[in-house]
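We now fix the convention by which a protein and its fold are recorded. Think of the row as the fold of the chain written in a discrete alphabet. Here is one such record, which you should read through line by line.
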Amino acid sequence: MLDLTRWKNKKKIPGTKKLEPRIKFIVACFVVFAFLIICKLIDFQIIKFDFYAALASDQHEVYRKLFPERGSIYVKDKGSSILAVEENLYPLAINKDYNLIYAQPKYLDKSPEEVTAALLPLLEPDESKREEFGKELLAKLSKEDDPYEPLKHKVEDNIAQKIEELKIKGIIISKETFRYYPEKNLGANILGYVGFAESENMKKGYYGIEGYFNQELAGKQGEIQSEKDITGNFISVGEKKFVRAKDGDDIVLTIDKTVQYEVCTKLNEHVKVVQADSAVAIVMNPKTGEIIAMCSYPDFDPNEYNKVNSLGDYNNRAIFEAYEPGSIFKPITMAAGLDLGKITPETTYNDEGFVKIDEFTIHNADKKAHGIKTMTQVLENSLNTGTIFAVRQMEKKDFRSYVEKFGFGKKTGIELSVESAGNISSLKTNGEIYFATASFGQGITATPIQMVQAFSAIANGGKMVKPYIVEEIRKPEGIAIKTERARPISVISSRTATLLTGMMVSVIKNGQGKKAGVPGYYMAGKSGTAQIAEPGKSGYSNKTNHSFIGFGPVKDPKFLMLIKFENPKKGTYAESTAMPLFSRLAKFLFDYYHVVPDDL
């Protein structure tokens, strides 16, 4: 039997009482230490996971998380395409990864001359430019203590692959993202471009959609914050924050890619035929205000936006350049007179070929007297004296009110940068000469987009629509927001619009607009040949602007189109410059929209 008494009576080892508190203290310390480790792990892996994940990423990954991806710009496209993101959308502005080739001259394992000889044919494919580029390349590679020397940006993958295969130590290939425009010049003046803003040390959109919607397209930059010690290292116990970047919105335009291509291509071809300084073409749906095509010449390649002949090439002349529209303004004068009941299409007057107002004498363009003419014949023959007669039947304030109601003198508000308002300030005076010249489109200025907006009231039963070019904005989270449409404004009565349309049909059928017609279709239109004011002087130069504006078919208009040429050298009047192109494009649009010919 086991004797337990000797264990009970055994004395304890001396000093054990002193050790017990120490052991408990050490255990407690281990517990606290373990607790702190667990808390830190929770902090690392859960609370501040994004922060430390970013620090653990490579440089490219950190950049991707902190800097947003710029939104893309799309247009409608009925055809199929490799680049199409949806069945009917095609990108005109996207982001593309290129390669940056840079050198670390201090680490080169070959002489600068050898490296230059190896890289030159790859970095500069144009033999005529190689000598100059080679000198620059050699100079960069010869900077012995330089740790970073960029050699060329925007290098395609196939070239980068060949450079990588050379295995030259000290030559580095790095990915970089740039704005890319697949169709180059097509729609350049609508899109604008993305450049580097030195004052803000960041990329920024300029002109067009890129400029107008820069904030929405750019997105929101992320941020990484932490307290640092005097050496610049992160303090582990300091406050930390990591916020991911928010990518930019995508923009979907109302532009039809096929129509845009056809209109812009034919406009650029015709500019060379008539030898004009500049040109504009706009195609709009007169019932909705959606812009189907908008072209401006000269244009530019936004991929190489720095290679322009003039800063003016960036401007979208359809919205930026206000000009004296000339005789295409005459239907606006007639609209006011008809709507006020002061004239009818059959109202007559005696055309003596000129009108005297104070010390001024105003002639018809052909310098001829035409005798008794109706208001319809005034438009058919584009008689200046006839619109002066019409404007004299109204109160000056009434005519000015109608010009303002048609939208002249203020911006249309189309979603593009940069738009001009035009100038109708001469109508704020009471001088009769200003109202007389304004009646046939001289002494006042308007932009092409203002003219298109005004004529939409005639094509749309008296209700004017606001032009718009953005169909919807798509958020990165997948939400699509339709842009707000302005309600049509009633400018003239439907009866006035019908009467005036009939008068404009007669212009193409019986008058000076015959060359703008398309066999088998009723169309309404008006031409204009206006003198260009002498810059900085009173009076006019011998240069002219040629325009034609019209819509069709009149029973159910599918398009409203304006063509304008500045200072064409071949052709005296719009009849021989703008009208033939209008007819050609109208024929294309009728075919494209499968419009059945009218019964003639």
